[in-house]
Write a structure and sequence with these properties.
2 domains, 7-stranded mixed sheet, single chain, Rossmann fold, 458 residues
Length: 458
């Protein structure tokens, strides 16, 4: 019997995990951590439905936490097989996993000191040793290359255009072919080339993060106007940005806006160890060129990520000093949904001051501080208490690296033939339902929205 199990990113945009099972073995596609509200986060601690030692291989689509962040926990549970991913994904995922382990350990330690955890003592979901072991399992899978995973299952990777190194995956499962979009990129990404076409497949698993939305064009004024407004009133700008991809893209945008004079030249601080490490990987990718990077970016005569007054903040002491008295500036810090990391103490400092601007250039999962801000929260809980929100808050979806519903339909139309079923995942329920309806009505395909933990035969 050949089956597919939806063990994550079903009914939500987070915790991506899909298990392919055949008589020859089991392969896990993505191994993401859940983020968002408490109910979802509790799934990170739940028993995994398959013993880790029974999994033959893991294949990653890309390096975002909700696609790779549960790997150290899987390792802690006994997994020791290969983890296939593109070389750039391996470089970025190593940064993500080390940072995640550090935050897990730090949060557990802080909870023990402050006494707000129900557990005695508070324990991390995984630790640095688990992350290092997970990183040691990475095996390169270049775009266009294949790997044999079990006696009856192989995989080929293709470019997804979502973040550096991101892949769509084409599995040969017995006599069947199963394609996973992972997180699909946009043709308008300023740095990365667009996704490769969808290969011929019997089954397609497609993301639906923006399944009920169409992004507007990337307009300079969407980011320039609120920034100018904040700087004019003597305020500063806090941008909670995902360390992977979003920080480089925001820096590229600010570089262009300051070059044209649409935004005044002010100091820009990147305050996230993970973002700084990822930025170096992106710089290396631009220097090397390759299929991921657009030719016009490779041909720029200077660093595409330096707007001119760029300051890289490394130490905690430097980070804390940013909250002191200083001229108006722009602070880019992670995490992108303000769930943890250095951005939280900047948020606690800046949110009560109406002069400041909090600019959120990405999708915000329900249950996160970022989503609360976008939804108009007047206070936020952090550090065991509440902080008032008086700063201006602006959310901009046009900066998303995710395909919108039109992008997804365009990608699906590149399929050489109609699949037997298209499974719609990685979206909030209404978004997934809306995308499935469009796929059915516009393409004539059988489209289904699977439930969490559902099994289907392939």
């Amino acid at each position: 019997m050949q089956e597919l199990r939806f063990l994550g990113a079903a009914g939500t945009v987070t915790g991506s995990k899909f298990l392919l099972g055949t008589p020859g073995g089991k392969v896990l596609v993505d191994c993401g951590m859940y983020q968002g509200d408490r109910e979802l986060r509790h799934r990170n601690w739940a028993a995994f439905p398959v013993p880790a030692h029974e999994i033959n291989a893991v294949v990653l689509t890309h390096a975002h936490l909700d696609h790779c962040g549960w790997l150290p926990r899987l390792v802690r549970r006994g997994y020791s097989g290969p983890v296939y991913c593109s070389p750039w994904t391996a470089s970025l995922a190593a940064i993500v996993l080390r940072d995640a382990a550090h935050l897990q350990e730090e949060d557990a330690e802080y909870a023990a000191v402050r006494g707000y955890s129900k557990h005695r003592p508070p324990l991390p979901l995984f630790d640095t040793a688990d992350s290092e072991k997970a990183i040691s399992l990475f095996r390169d899978l270049e775009h266009g290359a294949s790997a044999q995973l079990t006696a009856d299952m192989s995989v080929r990777a293709h470019r997804a255009g979502h973040i550096l190194g991101s892949s769509t995956l084409e599995f040969r499962v017995g006599e069947r072919t199963v394609a996973f979009s992972g997180d699909l990129g946009r043709g308008s990404h300023p740095l990365l080339n667009p996704p490769d076409p969808l290969p011929e497949a019997d089954f397609v698993i497609i993301e639906s993060t923006y399944g009920d939305e169409v992004h507007g064009p990337r307009r300079a004024d969407d980011i320039a106007v609120p920034i100018r407004r904040a700087l004019a009133r003597g305020g500063s700008v806090l941008i909670p940005a995902f360390a992977i991809d979003r920080t480089p893209v925001v820096l590229m945008t600010l570089r262009e806006l300051m070059r044209t004079g649409d935004v005044p030249r002010v100091p820009i601080y990147v305050d996230s160890p993970m973002a700084l490490a990822a930025l170096e990987v992106y710089r290396e990718a631009v220097r090397e060129g390759g299929r991921d990077i657009r030719a016009r970016v490779r041909d720029l005569p200077s660093d595409p990520f330096d707007p001119g007054e760029l300051h890289l903040v490394h130490s905690r002491e430097e980070s804390k000093r940013l909250n002191g008295a200083h001229p108006p500036c722009i602070i880019i810090s992670a995490s992108g949904m303000a769930t943890g990391g250095r951005v939280v103490h900047h948020l606690a400092h800046m949110a009560p001051d109406p002069r400041h601007l909090i600019l959120l250039p990405g999708y915000q999962v329900p249950g996160t501080r970022g989503r609360s801000l976008v939804d108009g929260a007047t206070s936020l809980k952090m550090f065991g208490g509440y902080v008032p929100v008086r700063a201006e808050v602006v959310g901009i979806t046009e900066f998303s690296a995710h395909a919108d519903s039109d992008d997804v339909l365009s990608w699906l139309r590149t399929a050489p033939r109609q699949p037997q079923t298209c499974y719609v995942v990685h979206g909030e329920p209404e978004a997934s339902k809306a995308l499935a309806h469009r796929i059915h009505t516009e393409l004539g395909w059988c489209a289904a929205v699977p439930q969490y933990a559902e099994r289907v035969l392939i």
